Amino acid sequence: MEIILGQALFLLFCSILACFFTFSTTRSKRKSPGAVVTPPGPPRLPIIGNIHLVGKNPHRSFADLSKTYGPIMSLKFGSLNTVVIASPEAAREVLRTHDQILSYRSPTNSIRSLNHHKVSVVWLPSSSAHWRMLRKLSVNLLFSPQRIEATKALRLRKMKELVSFMSESSEREEAVDISRASFITTLNIISNILFSVDLGSYDSKKSSAFQDAVTGLMEAIGNPDLANYFPFLRYLDLQGNTKSIKVCTDRLFMAFRGFINAKIAERLLRNNHNEVSNIDFVDALLQFTERDEAELNTNDIEHLLLDMFGAGTDTNSSTVEWAMSELLRNPKTLAKAQAEIDRVIGQKGVVEESDILELPYLAAVVKETFRLHPAAPLLVPRKAEADVEVLGYLVPKDTQVLVNVWAIGRDPSVWENPMKFEPERFMGKDIDVKGRDYELTPFGAGRRICPGLPLAVKIVPLMLASLLYSFDWKLPNDVVSEELDMDETFGLTLHKTKPLHAVPVKKRTH
Ligand code: HEM
Fold first, then answer.
1. If you take atom 40 of ligand 1, which residue's CA is the nearest one?
2. Judging by beta carbons within 10 Å of its beta carbon (0-12, 13-18, 19+), is residue 87 exposed, middle or buried?
3. What is the average pLDDT across 204-211?
4. pLDDT, tens digit, 9 for 90 and up, residues 414-436
5. Of all protein residues, whose CA lies closest to atom 14 belonging to ligand 1?
6. Which value, in Å, is the radius of gyration of the alpha carbons in the chain?
7. b/e string for 394-431 if b means 16 or more Cβ within 10 A?
8. What is the mean pLDDT of the chain?
9. How many Å lie between the centroid of ligand 1 and the Cα of residue 44?
10. What is the residue with the minimal CA distance to atom 18 of ligand 1?
11. Cβ–ligand 1 contact at 91 (below 6 Å)
12. What's the whole-number mean pLDDT along residues 78-98?
């Protein structure tokens, strides 16, 4: 209701402004011969700039505009100067050549409302010592090859729980909400890696307050917010985002505090704090804080946990949902992926991580899903720390820089038949998602590349392979596979507007 009211106020605001002002143009003027100009962009309305050109799905609106204005384009949203990148060459310039200058962040209003940007690994500028420490801690204590290996058994256990939940639905011949099931699986993997607790439940009657708070937080952060463009609106909270975010984060921080305090008490009871071999992330962070020179406090730990849940759950689960949707829409591709899995796993009864390396077609299915449905279609907004020249254009200091990886993934000059789901295009090719191939960077690249990549590239294929190995899949009666609704909703992550429901049918062979 508050959101609708906010949108109505916004439309009114825009129309009044449009009545009073005339068009201006953004084409930058060459100040003197040889001087660098800002990138081209569409004409702007005074005050609101180009806000009226951004629809519900900004990545789509930007992709359309880039067809006219080119791979590096200027837009203005209220007081916020923005540059949108839409080609692999331009992405390379931003994410590699000028990575250092363009690695600042542009925190949204909701992030500021929590003071999260002052302590967050996602939002701190990359030049800050605190960011470097948080990033190093995350990489070493969560995502190093040793830590990924140490949590392998946990992921296998969570896949077995997912398969067992699907088996129950299969016996009842019931359709399952794939988005919810994969979200709960990912949530439990991450909550166990962080502090050895299950926080999600497949049983909808037992749905936990924590699970609801994570989902609520993501929705609120993903909502459009006028205060991002007009900072003076911050205190009015027209769309109610700040209020919703506060409610959800209060709940999450309270839960985190409970887990951290329990760990501290447990550590005090033990004589040798570090004797436990199988420590989780919070254990490891507490060990770190006990060092004299450590500049990390409980508040930092709570915000770091918030970042990991915020960045790590929805991204994984929506990728699995998109992959399953594409496979159900393309039965031949589904059959081919299943045939490969059956051939490699045979009668073993369970898919293990070591099997994944033997499944190149499945790997291609995952890449094709990242190409068409990147979880963060504009990456996480970056900001210019200083004036910088990109492809001959000036990107002034403090400009927000968005890399439209969604548009690059669907560009016909980069991909043949870009709108078709064809994993075959990756077979025998060297293209990967690890930030070196600028036509496919769903995890970003450079110094701000997603640190969770090593975990995500384990979870996504393993979950997909487990679902495809144990079950055949049917769409509910009234849905025809070619007509499966693939509409997207832009938010913190790019979601399927209508969650995928599918019926698991237990395979007879294993
Ligand atoms: C399919 C899964 C995932 C996708 C597609 C994804 C994508 C991204 C993207 C695009 C960025 C911004 C990169 C940039 O600015 O260039 C990012 C940043 C980040 N991701 Fe992920 N991510 C995924 C999973 C995870 C997981 C599992 C975690 C942790 C548990 C995680 C934690 C983070 C963090 C902390 C950042 C901020 C890094 C920084 O700003 O320095 N992500 N991710």
1. 122
2. buried
3. 74
4. 999 999 999 999 999 999 999 99
5. 444
6. 23
7. bbeeebbbbbbbbbbbbbeebbeebeebbbebbeeeee
8. 89
9. 33
10. 450
11. no
12. 97
The tokens describing 140, both together, are 């070493």
* pLDDT number for residue 5: 40
Give the pLDDT score at 271.
63
* Ligand 1 atom nearest residue 374's Cα: 5
How much distance in Å is there from the Cα of 488 to the middle of ligand 1? 20
CA distances from residue 107 to 272, 304, 380 in whole angstroms, order as listed:
41, 16, 10
Between CA 430 and CA 423 the distance in angstroms is: 13
* 293: alpha, beta or left? (left if phi > 0; alpha if psi -120 to 50): alpha
Match domain 2-506 to its CATH number in 1.10.10.10, 1.10.940.10, 3.30.460.10, 1.10.630.10: 1.10.630.10
**pLDDT exceeds cutoff 90 at 55:** no
Q: Residue 110: which of 125, 101, 122, 100 has the closest Cα?
A: 122
Q: How far is the CA of 53 from the centre of ligand 1 (A)?
A: 28
Please say if the pLDDT value at position 27 is more than 60: no
Chain-centroid distance, C-alpha 436: 19
Q: State mean pLDDT over 434-448.
A: 97
Is there an atom of ligand 1 within 6 Å of 103 CB?
A: no
Sign of CA dihedral 378, 381, 384, 385: negative
pLDDT single digits (tens) 125-179: 999 999 999 999 999 999 999 999 999 999 999 999 999 999 999 999 999 999 9
Q: Is 41 in the pocket of ligand 1 (CB under 6 A)?
A: no
Residue 316 in contact with ligand 1 by CB distance below 6 A = yes
Average pLDDT in the 223-232 region? 82
Task: List, for residues 458-483, the tens digit of each pLDDT value.
Answer: 999 999 999 999 999 999 987 888 88
**What is the residue with the minimal CA distance to atom 6 of ligand 1?**
443
For ligand 1, say whether the CB of 434 is within 6 Å of any of its atoms. no
Q: Output the CA 444–ligand 1 centroid distance in Å.
A: 8
Distance 380 CA to ligand 1 centre (A): 8
Contact in structure between 175 and 502 (CB atoms under 8 Å): yes
Q: What is the pLDDT of residue 18?
A: 43
286 pLDDT band (50/70/90 cuts)?
Answer: very high
Residue where the block lists tokens 């994410």: 95
Tokens for 396? 């002034």
Ligand 1: does its nearest atom lie under 6 Å from the Cβ of 401?
no
Q: Phi and psi of 376, rounded to 5°?
A: -115, 90
Binding residues for heme: 450
* Alpha carbon of 16 to ligand 1 centroid (Å): 39
Ligand 1 within 6 A of 494 CB? no
Band of residue 275 on the pLDDT scale cut at 50, 70, 90:
low
Instruction: Determine whether the shortest distance from the Cβ of 405 to ligand 1 is under 6 A.
Output: no
Instruction: List helix spans (H) across 201-297.
Output: 209-222, 241-269, 281-289
